[in-house]
Amino acid sequence: MGSGKAERSEKAKSKGNKNTPLLTNPKPTKFKNKKKHHPPPRLGGSKKKPIPQTKNNQPNNNNNNEAEAVVPPATTSQQLRFFIDEFQSANGVQLSTLELESIKDSSFVELSPQLGGQDVEHLGKHMKAVFGSSWKQALSQGQLVEGNIDPGSPAVLIISTSALRCIELLRGVRSLTKECHAVKLFSKHMKVEEQVALLKNRVNFASGTPNRLKKLIDIEALGLSRLTMILLDMHTDVKGYSLLTLPQVRDEFWDLYKSYFHQRLLQGDLRICLFGPIPNDNELRGKKRRASDE
User: Where is the composition biased (Basic residues) (predicted)?
Assistant: First the structure.
């Protein structure tokens, strides 16, 4: 009798004690077997964010080379209109009818879109195409020829805004300069005397900034007897400035151009290559309106 009562008492205590776990059919805890909710997949794959458009209606890609590759090179007539507009605007002059007639479409170099974009990686191919069958003799050979190949007189003169950009552009023609090294002509970390010594050899490519180039031409260290093309770097820096828009450098370039290149262009002895995207006609007209309003 006593033992039966004791057992019933223990069972009652067990049922009444909420803290005592049951041995059969235990309820699962909340963190066990919890299924994660996944939203149903979208039809057609993940939705991509639209690529922001630039003012030239081109994708604003952080990779300059990829973005520039889709920009078609400007035609010679587009380059002509742009260059004359910039010349007259920057110098506050109006070219005469005779001068305008002397500067023809053929005074500018039109790059082939089949050879790639207007970036450093394709520059060498563009230069070979411009010089045609004579590219090796003009751009790659390294021997001086008396009466024909003068020392310190490049066939191509690359003009840019900064030392870093000058070096970057020369990287694009590295395959053409194995026998005849290109010459760097800027003021950063380089003395005039060092550059004068370099210009005593044959030079096919020279790359520099306007102020230093003019100084070397003034002292007759940099010659122009072989010069057939000047390549103007039209690419913009991180602040949006280019060779023809960076205030001080722009003024130095036009000073150099008027002193040594303009007459050669009028005579048909020199061609200009605008390397990089240039503003279209609508942007040029907008620029003229803003200038007249000021």
Answer: 29-50
- pLDDT tens-digit series, residues 43-99: 545 555 555 554 444 444 444 444 444 568 899 999 999 999 999 999 999 999 999
CB 222 within 8 A of CB 206: yes
- Is the Cβ–Cβ distance between 131 and 84 less than 8 Å? no
Positions of E strands within 112-252? 156-159, 183-185, 205-208, 229-233
Contact indicator for 234, 277 with CB cutoff of 8 Å: yes
CA distances from 165 to 57, 110, 187 (A): 25, 22, 13
Q: Residue 24 carries which side chain, given as an amino acid letter?
A: T
State the pTM of this model. 0.73
- Stated as kind and residue range, the H or E segment containing 6 is helix 2-16
Per residue in 96-143, pLDDT tens? 999 999 999 999 999 999 998 898 999 999 999 999 999 999 999 999
Cα(242)–Cα(235) distance, integer angstroms: 6
Three-state secondary-structure class, residue 87: helix
Q: Could you write out the DSSP letters of every residue in 27-62? A: PPPTTTTPPPP-PPPPTTSPPPPPPPB-TTSSB--S
Tokens of 103: 């500067």
Q: Report CA-CA distances (Å) from 223 to 107, 177, 199, 226.
A: 21, 19, 9, 8
